[in-house]
Amino acid sequence: MRSIASRLAPVVGLLLLLVPGVAVGQDAPTTQTLADDLSSVITAVDSLWVVVAACLVLFMQAGFALLEVGLSRAKNAGAVMGKILINMSLAILMFWATGFAFAFGTGNDFWGTEGWFFTATGFPEATGSVFDGASASVSSLFFFQMVFCCVSLAIVFGSMLDRTKFPAYILFAIPFAGFIYPVVAHWTWGGGWLFKDGFLDYAGSSIVHLQGALGALAGAIILGPRIGKFRDGKAVPIPGHSIPLAIAGVIILWFGWMGFNGGSSLLANGADFADVILNTNLAAAAGVVGATLGSLLMFKTLDVSQMGNGAIGGLVAITAPCAFVDYWAGIVIGLVAGLLIPVIVVGVERMKIDDPLGALAAHGVSGIWGTLAIGLFGTSERMDPIIVDAVGLDSRSGLFVGGGVSQLWVQFYGIIATVAFTGILCAVVFMAIKMTIGLRASEEHERAGLDISEHGMFGYPEQFIEVPGAMPENAFPGSGSMAGASAVHQASPATSNS
User: Fold this and answer.
1) What's the CA gap between 354 and 373, in Å, rounded?
2) Mean pLDDT across the stretch 76-89?
3) pLDDT at 479 over 60
């Protein structure tokens, strides 16, 4: 990032040319006064952009909610919304209490050790962190990083829909948001050991998305598949109840990603964030095209849910390299991510892992691919401000743009370290939950639906219980109420979830 002084210089020079025009009888402002005033303006503008970007990222929770509701069973729609609310709230509180300190507090190369219970004044920032050179207020920077933590936690439970006990969300969210996620964030964004090795992840393909997917993988394996998902050794489709809701969620996520990647510039001055946003959109569009082609080749049909996951896969893949690759490379990265989506979805099912949302493909494999893509397509012009100027290493380029394997190697072992640390700790936490309060809902509750068993009311009550006046009489032949319609629906083997 450019220093504040270099950003102020041309503006100060222009204002100095206007000084002779100051009204007679008034003292002309000094150069220092002008510089101080402009510095305050830049801080305000950069802080505003960071807060707006953070709000876009926070709105991604609505995208996750609609995507997960759409791909879950109707009898669990309300439970999904409750899960979104409690996870978001716990992530915010835990990141305030311990997470921000572990991630960005002054400490060592592994984690921060100061700054518990964040306060806006006197926070000890880690030397070499992403905040170095940022003029935005520390409160705005905290808010931005906090909503990133919320996103990573949201990813975890996409693979655990329709069968997880509500208290398990709470017990997992506390260590994940308060410790697991922040420690890995410190390794790079907090100026830790990976940052000093030159590892790059601009907005979180590995730090945010891969970590969430690793939690999802550990949870899905320990939890086990939904009732009826695998029969006679084969995967049986359990379609979500609303593709329109799911795709609306994808579009909201796409929109929120403008803040996710664009806001990671942490400044509004210059063209950096606009360049990143353009790369992000190109990759997302290419991801949809890739998944469409992949779906047609593998399934002989245009699977709309796969197309939606293609958009997410492209977005996840470009998140790490969005500031380090040229536009053509962004398209290639998104296209490959989209093509991989249906392949990985089928591969996961063949391993008898039940992933209703496709999170392991869209966030896990795409996160790995995007992180490695920096070592393949990153240009020295785009990477040098960090690799050379901030870290002090020699200039590097990606393997496919005339460079060697140096950057690719760093990206590779950064992924391995993340997989080992996050994967193991998430598995330990989920096993502890399983052996204590229990991780999975009972078979009775799963069949009845988590809405009614966990929360006492269906998300769509008119579909499952009799609500006077909700439907015209005789709307369903042989039935005078929605209750009768529900009974007919539940009795049909073709529509049964089990």
Assistant:
1) 28
2) 95
3) no
Q: Which residue has the tokens 């998305």?
A: 209
Please write the tens of the pLDDT for every residue from 148-204: 999 999 999 989 999 999 999 999 999 999 999 999 999 999 999 999 999 999 999
The pLDDT, as a whole number, for residue 416 is 98
Please give the domain boundaries of the chain with CATH numbers for all domains: 39-435 (1.10.3430.10)
Q: Which of 206, 341, 333, 204 is nearest to 259 (CA)?
A: 204
**Does the pLDDT at position 22 exceed 50?**
no
pLDDT for the residue 6: 52
Q: Residue 233's pLDDT is what?
A: 82
Q: Indicate the pTM of the whole model.
A: 0.87
Residue-level pLDDT at 11:
47
The Cα 75–Cα 312 span in angstroms is 26
Mean pLDDT, residues 463-479:
58
User: Which residues lie closer than 8 Å to 265 by C-beta, 6 or more apart?
Assistant: 1, 272, 273, 276, 323
Across 441-446, average pLDDT: 93
What gap in Å lies between CA 333 and CA 109, rounded to an integer?
31
pLDDT averaged over every residue in the chain: 87
β-pair type (230-231, 234-235): antiparallel
Is the pLDDT higher at 88 or at 45?
88
